[in-house]
């Protein structure tokens, strides 16, 4: 059931959002809004890290049901991202480049695409982003005073995977160090949830801790712990605690809460991706069962409350509430955002992963 729904969600997102870059053959990019305004049609407004998640969703779909046409689309999207980024693979935001690195590495593992050049550049930038300010961790962006979970989490996941697939042997230790830094400084002892990040003084001391809680942060910290898990021990204990904390504080009847449109539109979907990986890794344990239950309940709510639009289902930013179709580029609804639609698609793909695992 979920595999079929995921195929429908994929078709809807690609029909409404996937276009060439500046009409150039052999390229694709996700239009950031639908219906699109002039800036979006021209990819003037394009959101680098949303494109990484679009590529990640296509890899999910290829694992679900391989198709040569999709493989072509993924290669064209990777080419389009680099072209729109003016020939570069990286930008000033460490979280952005970590996400693209993860998507490219998954593309390589899925299709054998050569990604050594972009991964080398991306991971070199991430390694250079580590400093001893605030005891470690990488910055959110270059020349900033902020270190946060949204940058350190995906970087840790990428380093853990890259260490096994072409990177440096020390990258796995980097993944451990990044995750341990988040654990030490950014876990709320009262709830077990991850705070957003912290501001650092020039002398390396901590000026302020930003105690905002995002579903995004829980997802990437959980993902890092799952990647580092090698049996009962500290990483599994931290992953299990995070799953319990999400269930207790960030869901309603097991449905993950939304965070509106824009960048926040991706947050819930990111959490479902790594909950699904935890459900597979931890199997029939209480933590594995809880992770799978949240994924399925969230995907079911997103699907039940979808709107019907051109191309197929349209997801809302709050999965427990009915989505509404935007009527024009001037209609300021979060449903217009590619981020919101990717998040819904991600949840449905995550449910398909859990469904396949439960059927085995």
TrEMBL record:
- Residue spans making up a coiled coil are none
Residue ranges for the region (Disordered) are 314-336
**Biological process terms in GO annotation:** carbohydrate metabolic process
- The molecule here is called Alpha-1,6-mannanase (GH76 family)
**What is the organism field in this record?**
Actinophytocola xinjiangensis
């Amino acid at each position: 059931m979920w595999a079929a729904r995921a195929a429908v969600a994929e078709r809807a997102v690609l029909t409404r959002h996937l276009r060439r870059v500046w009409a150039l053959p052999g390229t694709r990019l996700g239009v950031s809004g639908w219906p699109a305004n002039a800036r979006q049609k021209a990819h003037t407004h394009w959101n680098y890290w949303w494109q990484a998640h679009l590529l990640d969703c296509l890899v999910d779909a290829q694992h679900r049901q391989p198709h040569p046409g999709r493989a072509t689309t993924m290669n064209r999207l990777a080419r389009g991202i680099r072209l729109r980024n003016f020939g570069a693979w990286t930008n000033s935001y460490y979280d952005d480049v970590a996400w693209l690195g993860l998507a490219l590495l998954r593309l390589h593992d899925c299709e054998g695409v050569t990604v050594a050049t972009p991964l080398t550049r991306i991971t070199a930038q991430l390694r250079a982003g580590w400093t001893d300010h605030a005891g470690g961790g990488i910055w959110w962006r270059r020349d900033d005073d902020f270190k946060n979970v949204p940058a350190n989490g995906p970087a840790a996941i990428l380093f853990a995977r890259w260490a096994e697939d072409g990177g440096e042997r020390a990258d796995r230790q980097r993944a451990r160090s990044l995750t341990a830094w988040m654990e030490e400084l950014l876990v709320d002892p009262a709830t077990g949830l991850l705070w957003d990040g912290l501001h650092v003084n020039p002398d390396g001391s901590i000026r302020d801790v930003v105690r905002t809680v995002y579903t995004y942060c829980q997802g990437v910290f959980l993902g890092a712990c799952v990647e580092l898990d090698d049996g009962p021990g500290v990483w599994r204990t931290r992953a299990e605690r995070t799953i319990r904390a999400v269930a207790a504080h960030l869901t309603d009847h097991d449905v993950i809460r939304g965070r509106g449109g824009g960048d926040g539109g991706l947050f819930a979907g990111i959490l479902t991706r790594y909950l699904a990986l935890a459900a597979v890794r931890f199997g029939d344990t209480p933590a594995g069962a809880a992770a799978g239950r949240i994924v399925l309940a969230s995907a079911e709510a997103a699907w039940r409350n979808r709107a019907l639009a051109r191309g197929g289902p349209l997801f809302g930013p709050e999965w427990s509430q009915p989505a509404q179709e935007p009527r024009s580029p001037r209609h300021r609804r979060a449903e217009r955002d590619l981020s919101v639609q990717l998040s819904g698609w991600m949840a449905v793909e995550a449910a398909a992963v859990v469904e396949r695992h439960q059927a085995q």
